[in-house]
């Protein structure tokens, strides 16, 4: 079960809370003027209409799935991943590749399970790599399409805020004969620009950036998985496979492990 990405949630909630506090502190009793149904409908309604024209319903479905990923943490333990492939490699070298058929169903990650199953089926390394890379490419394209909706929303939201402002200015100019209405009318006209800017800079653009980052992380991990699967398929020595995959582990973790090994060697130099 994937954990929630706290940085996304904390950033979004803190942004809304701090912005609201800033408005309340600065505006006091007049803060309610920032709540405008007509401005909200103009900005959000126009934005949704533009996105529907620009994208298909399939793109919206992909964007929803991609957006969910922005709020979930990629739970990959690289050290555990390396050890998993070392165990599979050891088993394959001792008992043969067909022995892996006994443990395929026990592998939780569907991508690793598929790769090991292809290995058990006797496919060549190049064929296995092509199949798995095609799956990575397919997932990457789906997430890129989902991200494109967020990017476009971040681009269009301020523009629709300006449209709402122009509507408000036109209505204000019709009532220039009453100077008392100019100030309040101008304030309401600018609220749509405020809505558009907030939606773009607090929601759509940051979420698009998070989606891009998580997609890159997923692709990286799956490329590491492919290297592990090919190592198992080729009958590579488990120790060499560990050394090869350990390169992909975070440098900070590798450094800690090296320091730990150095301490152990000092304590027991003769072992």
Describe the structure.
This protein has 271 residues and is mainly α. The chain has a domain at 35-77 and 127-258. It is built from nine helices and no strands. The chain has helices at 6-27, 37-54, 57-70, 78-95, 110-120, 125-173, 182-233, 238-246, 251-267. Helix 4 runs antiparallel to helix 8 (238-246). The protein is elongated, with a radius of gyration of 27 Å. The two termini are 41 Å apart. Mean pLDDT is 84; it is low at 252-271.
Give the overall shape, derived from the CA principal axes: elongated
Largest sheet: none
Helix content: over 70%
Mean pLDDT metric? 84
Beta fraction of the residues? under 5%
The number of helical elements comes to 9
In angstroms, what separates the terminal alpha carbons?
A: 41 Å
Low-confidence stretches: 252-271
Q: Give the SSE order as H and E letters.
A: HHHHHHHHH
Give the radius of gyration: 27 Å
Estimated structural class: mainly alpha
Q: How many beta-strand runs?
A: 0
Short précis:
This protein has 271 residues and is mainly alpha-helical.
Please give the structural blueprint.
Elements lengths: L5 H22 L9 H18 L2 H14 L7 H18 L14 H11 L4 H49 L8 H52 L4 H9 L4 H17 L4
Helix pairs in contact: 1-7, 2-6, 2-7, 3-6, 3-7, 4-7, 4-8, 5-7, 6-7
């Amino acid at each position: 079960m994937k954990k929630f990405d706290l940085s996304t949630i904390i950033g979004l909630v803190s942004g809304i809370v701090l912005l609201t506090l800033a408005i309340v502190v600065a505006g006091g009793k007049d803060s309610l003027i920032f709540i405008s149904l007509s401005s909200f409908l103009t900005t959000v309604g126009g934005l949704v209409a533009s996105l529907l024209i620009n994208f298909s319903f399939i793109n919206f479905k992909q964007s929803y799935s991609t957006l969910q990923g922005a709020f979930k943490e990629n739970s990959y333990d690289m050290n555990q991943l390396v050890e998993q492939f070392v165990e599979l490699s050891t088993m394959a070298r001792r008992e043969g590749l067909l022995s892996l058929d006994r443990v395929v169903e026990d592998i939780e990650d569907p991508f690793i399970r598929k790769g090991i199953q292809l290995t058990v089926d006797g496919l060549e390394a190049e064929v296995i790599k092509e199949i798995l890379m095609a799956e990575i490419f397919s997932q990457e394209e789906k997430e890129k399409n989902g991200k494109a909706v967020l990017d476009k929303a971040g681009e269009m939201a301020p523009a629709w805020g300006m449209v709402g402002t122009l509507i408000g200015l036109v209505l204000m100019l019709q009532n220039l004969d009453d100077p008392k209405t100019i100030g309040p009318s101008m304030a309401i006209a600018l609220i749509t620009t405020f809505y558009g800017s907030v939606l773009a800079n607090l929601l759509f653009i940051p979420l698009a950036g998070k989606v891009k980052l998580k997609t890159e992380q997923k692709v990286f991990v799956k490329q590491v998985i492919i290297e592990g699967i090919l190592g198992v398929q080729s009958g590579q020595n488990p120790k060499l496979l560990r050394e090869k995959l350990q390169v992909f582990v975070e440098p900070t973790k590798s450094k800690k492990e090296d320091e730990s090994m150095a301490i152990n060697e000092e304590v027991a130099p003769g072992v």
